[in-house]
Amino acid sequence: MNTTYQSISSIVTQNISLTDLLQQCNTINNYNPITDFQPWADCLNNIQKGQNYKYNALQFTEAITKVWTGNLMNRDTLFKGIQNIKTAQGNQAFDNKSIYKSINTQYPITVTFIVDTKKLISSKQSWANKYLTATDNNGDPNQGSNEITVNANVGNTLRWVGKSKNGTDTVQLTAFVFRGETNLFGENLPSKQSDGSYMGKLVTTGTEVYSFSFTINNVPTTYNWDPYINCSE
Predict the structure, then answer these.
(1) How do residues 138-148 score in pLDDT, each as one tens digit?
(2) What are the domain boundaries of the chain?
């Protein structure tokens, strides 16, 4: 790889790989994508323009995560950077769905559900659907409802996090339960991680009905919530 060029404008039209182009952008400018977001994003856009708009969202995703690793990159910054890339006409080059699909190959899809713990406890009900809201970082429909359906692809990793809406209450995930249709995780069902979240990797296509069991404030009483997953190739 040649790193002797003195400016971005001198490298963007070079006939070298996208990874090497980005590495030279990193070498020349040494931008931190998180703290220097806009000039870093401008580098991506300048390279795409200089290369006659030939790269797609997945190619950018794979190359960026090779060049900027560790605390220099995260899922949100990667999404916004690729979303910032323009067409020759100045429009967003890649639709959000294709960007999410691309970054899901590198980062887990995180589903966060927030429980109104005080109302759920006082209800004396075991099913918590009426007392929680769920969101994910995958742009799926029904954000902020209790019936969120994650749309993902084979090979993606899903992550679940439970939180409380109320003060110092805490929510502890205790079990992932397969309930019907297709078991999308095969033999390796989502399991508890050291930080209390659950994670699992999708291995086949279809729709899965599942639930999570959880406790509040580590009290033995168990509550349940049942969202959905759609998995494609």
Answers:
(1) 999 999 999 89
(2) 8-103, 109-232
Contact call for residues 81 and 31 (beta carbons, < 8 A)? no
The model's pTM is 0.93
Strand partners, 218: none
CATH of domain 109-232: 2.60.40.3910
Cα Rg of the chain, angstroms: 21
Quick: pLDDT tens for 192-220: 999 999 999 999 999 999 999 999 999 99
The C-alpha atoms of residue 68 and residue 63 are separated, in whole angstroms, by 9
Write down the residue that tokens 């401008």 correspond to: 42
- Mean pLDDT, the chain, whole residue set: 95
Q: Taking Cα atoms as reference points, which of 30, 99, 98, 42 lies closest to residue 68?
A: 30
Which tokens is 90 given?
């100045």
